[in-house]
Structures are given as C-alpha cells and as structure tokens.
Amino acid sequence: MFPFRIAWLAAVLGAASVPVHALTLAQALDAAQGHAPELAASAAATAAAQALTRSAGALPDPKLSIWIDDLPTEGDDAYRIGSAKRAFSLMQEVPNAGLRAAERRIADARLQGSEAQARYARLGVTRDTTLAWLALYYLDRKAALLDAQEAEIRRGEAAALARLKGGDSADGALAARLERAQLDDARDELARDRLRAQAQLARWVGTEAAAQPVSGELPDWLGADAPAGDDLLAEQPEIRAAATLLDGAQAELAMAQAAKRPNWGVELGWGLDAMDQGMAMLKFTFELPIFAASRQDPKIAAAYANVRQRDAERETRLADYRRQIAETRAEQAALRAQLDRLNTRTLPLIEQQAALALARLRAAAADGNAVLDARKARLAAQWRGVTLEADLADATARLHFLTGAHP
To answer: Does the domain formed by 41-402 have CATH 1.20.1600.10?
Structure first.
C-alpha cells in the first residue's frame, strides 16, 4: 500500500503543477476564426467568385478552321491534296455590348453574394462563440453561489446537530440533509448545463480550448443599448446577401433583354486553289432574333418574375429581422425590469429581514432558524439575480448581432 500511496501523491502533485489557462472572450473569438470550417468554405467560395469576375464579359475564344475543298476522287489526281483547294480561317464571335455588360454584372453580383455569405458565416461563428462563452461565464458565477449555499447548509446542519444534543427535535437536522440533497441536484443540473455550453464552445474553438475555464472582462457593448432603425440593418450580412441576389436577378433580366439585340461575328481566311494561286476570304455573320415572341420574350418574362421573387424574399428577411429585434427588445426590457426590481427592492428587503432576524437572535427573542432562513432567501435571490443577468446578457448579445451593430 505504501508505494501505491507515494505514486498517487506524485500524480496529484504533478497534476497540480500543470498550469491552467483561462480563456477570455477575445481569445475564444480568435480561436474560432481559425477553427471553424464554415469560414474556410466561405473563403473558398469567395475566391472562386473573384476568379470568375476576371473572365466575365470577355469575348469568346476565336475559332480556327482548316479545310480542303474540290478534292478529286477520280482520275490520276484522285485524293491528291495538291489538286484541291486548301484554306484556313480564323473566326471571332462578338456578343453585343449589352450582353457582355450583363455578364459582368452577374459575376459582380455573385462575388458580392459570396462576400456577404462569408460575412454572415463570420457573424454566426462570432455570435455562437460569444453566447457559449457568456453561458460558461455565468455558470461559473452560479457555481460560486452554490459553494456559498453549501457553507450555509453546513452551518445550519451543525447548529441543528448541536440543538439535537441539547434535547431539541431532529427536524432541523433532517431539513439540513434535505437541503444538501437539493443542493446536489442543483450541482448536477449545473454540471449538465456546463457540459452543454462547453460542447457549444468546442464546436467553434476546439475541445482543448473549450475545456479551459473562462475568465476576463465582459464586452463593452453588453451594457449599451442596441441602435434603432434600419440603417445598420441594411448591412446585416444576411440582408445584404438577399440584396445581392436581387442584384443578380436584375443582371439576368438585363442579359435576357440584351439577347433581343443581334450578336455578330467576323471570319478571315486564306488559302490556295488547285493551281496554287492564293486566295483570301472575309465573312461577317449576324444573328437575326426575329422570333422574339417565342424565344427571347418568354425568357425576359421569367427574368422579371425572378426579380419580383428576389425582391419579395429580401422584404421577407427584413420583416423577419424586424420581428426578431422587436421580440428580443421586449425580452430585454422585461429582464432589465426584473433585475432592477430584484436589486432595488427584493434584495434590500431580504437584507433587512436578515438583519432583524440577527437582532432578534442576539436579543434571545428567536432561535437561529430565522437567521438561516433569511440567509437562504438571500442566496436564492442572488441565484435568481445571476440567472436574470445571464438571460439578459444572452438577449443583449442576440440583439447586438441582429441589429448589425457588431464590427
């Protein structure tokens, strides 16, 4: 047994010597920027869209034609290439300027959409990382309250056991045991909530970073009011992405309309005839969109409908964001009112109740149960205060990222 105890003691001391780093919110956000795969995917999509803008609106590749004409199939010169016309030509198709401009607009709209999606991905990672970090921050504060409550229960249990030895009933000791069992339940629920919050944080920063205790200051914007109005909302990444979809639909409409204007092409050729005499050729081609009613007009009508669809989708997203903001503001106002009432009315009353109970105890007008009950009520109120603060921080963070007030 002795060697085992030495090994156990060495392991404990070794574990205690390992430094435990605290994870600040800034560190968590930095880790999330390099860990989240969504950001890598959005960056790749943006790079692809950026590359496509360089070729948008460019002329098609020229076409090289090589041919043999009047090749004899009979007689002494049958299948002799030198007895036929030989020629080659270079042809360049030239789409009309409106069509090429529409292609550039579509490519630009897709690039802006990819950039908006990348900003939306970064916003989502930042928001979810912040919410998980805040949840762990307030869970640590609740754990400290449970420690204080456990100390109160131990004092109450000791007092009950002392009274029991003095001939008092066992009700106090039994009540203390019941409170300890309830405290164990609360610790289990707290541990469950902490594991959930750590799992959420690990999704963005990695398991190793999420296992660290959180520490540091709360963000400054947590105590500020979110701005009102739609000025910043228009730059919300998801709203901006919807706007770029509308821009793309309008560019596709311009492309469909440009298809009613003819494209043209030019072909330049040179060759030799059967007598080895040089010859040249110049040819122009023009498209004739003379059946627009059955070809171009249906595409234009479909493009108009697509524009209306994208515009309606953008308005739908705006309306949904306004609803979420209004609901979150109402939730925030209710939580602030409850927290203010708790701090300005409930807690002072509980402090007065504890002071009166202590004064009566000192005057031998009451036993210690009233003092312990008052202290328990204070701890319960403090627990509710931390819960309200956590809920308020969660609502404020969601509102912060909804209104577009974030960087």
So the answer is: yes
List Cβ neighbours of 347 (8 Å cut-off, separation of 6 or more): 378, 381, 382, 385
The pLDDT value recorded for residue 253 is 93
At 378-403, the pLDDT tens digits run 888 888 999 999 999 999 999 988 88
pLDDT at 373: 74
pLDDT at residue 54 above 80? yes
**Res. 12: pLDDT tops 50:** no
**With b meaning 16 or more CB within 10 Å and e meaning fewer, what string describes 370-386?**
bbbebbbbbbebbbebb
Kindly list the domain boundaries of the chain, sorted by start residue.
Answer: 41-402
Q: Residue 253: helix, strand or coil by DSSP?
A: helix
Q: Which of 22, 16, 398 is nearest to 210 (CA)?
A: 22
Q: Which conformational region is residue 229 in: left (phi greater than 0), alpha (psi within -120 to 50 degrees), or beta?
A: left
Q: Among candidates 404, 28, 403, which has minimal Cα distance to 217?
A: 28
Closest CA to 137 of 336, 402, 406, 397: 397
Rounded CA separation 79/140 (Å):
93
Phi-psi region of 167 (alpha: psi -120 to 50; beta: other; left: phi over 0): left
C-alpha 200/C-alpha 188 separation (Å) is: 19
The string over 317-353, giving b where at least 16 C-beta atoms fall within 10 Å of a residue's C-beta and e elsewhere, is bbeebeeebeebbebbeebeebbeebeeebbeebeeb
pTM above 0.85, yes or no: no
DSSP SS3 for 170: coil
Label residue 13 by pLDDT band (50, 70, 90): very low
Give Dmax (Cα) for the chain.
Answer: 140
What distance in Å separates the CA atoms of residue 9 and residue 183, rounded to the nearest whole number?
30
